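My hope is that you will study the protein record below before we discuss the fold together.
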Amino acid sequence: MLRWLDTVFPRRALVQRDRRLLHLFLGRVLASTGFSIVIPFLSLYLHGERGVSMSLVGSIFFFAALTGALGQVVGGELTDRIGRKSVLVGTQLMRAALFVGLGAAVLLHAPVIWFAILTAGSAFAGRAFEPPSGAMVADIAQGGARAEYYAILRIGGNLGWAIGPAIGGFLAALSYPTLFLISAGVLLTSGLFMALKVEETAPHVRARSLEVQSSPTILPSSAGAAPLSQFQFKELGLALRDEVFMRYCVVTVLLFTVMSQLISTLSVYSVQWAGISKVQLGALYSLNGLMVVFLQFPVVRMLAPFRMTTALIAGSILYAAGYAMMGLGSGMPLLTAAMFVVTMGEIVTTPASMNLVANFSSEPLRGRYMGVYGLFNSFGWSVGPLVGGILLDLASGRPMLLWTPIACLTLLAAGGYLDLRRRIDRGTDSNIQAHVPETARA
């Protein structure tokens, strides 16, 4: 039984290798559970309960994701300067407080502007969480194990997605305020767990801690990180001047524009156009999470011999096929089949996309590269709900008119990744840690 489990779930990697990865994994599960209890149902509340148009709902998510893009950059800079753990814990505590605010806004029937502000704050905290978690995996992993460790991190996030929407579907049918408050409690638990169990991995922070312990009367300077007060935005140019990396980020905007359709567009389409219940919607999202939990690990191992751009091209085509299927009709069986194909695209693309960023960067600039990549990532997530919301309003009950343009975007992304494949060397494009000269990375 355990031998079979090891083929689909990273039990040995979590328990027998590095405990730091296990603690980060568990913290990620809690964080993702708290977030996913709410987020698929927020657009349903605003559109279904408050009568807000989907174009305006999309605009709220657009504004929120733009704020999240700022959170990616700030989170990346803070990750390099004050360490990974402080940013991980702080973002979770901030998000818990904001979700309490969303619960209060529902209870008080607050103006829609308050939902926009609180959702934007949540996006800032959530996106600031990504660079330290990505950098921590890169600190822990060695060589070819990095892609596997990123897959493990993905499994943790999607295990939360398997649990959260199932809970949220029942709560949304009963009480929206309870939905937000329970979510806040789970996020608070996530922050406290990481404060107690997650170990700092940033090399300069660990070195400073050891120096302080050996010479407690002297406060040494931090090697490898400038003081926060000396931050200059021109330092971001170290990543922005990397031409090939920037091409990669621009292409990725298209992919994340399509990925973000799961947040608001799919939930409203499924309930109000396809006619499934909120509980069924929760089950649909849980399918997405469970597939990643049980298929991410074997798929990453299967794709290990291939170049990462191969995975990105194949995953983009799967996304296109899955979203095109949604335009063929309605009902739970078809939506389930389409979600299966879309999730396979997610499983194939996501670990490769993060691993490629790590290969582009050097260790001192890891958080910065993650932050800049996250800036484009967040822009895709911001444009996506706005595009989906406008299409929902314009399509007027015609599914093909809604989903065909969305599917075409991922075909454009596949072409972009094919072009990128010709521009980068095989070492950077492989699952083994690339050895890129420091001057080239700068």
In short: The chain has one domain: 9-206+235-441.
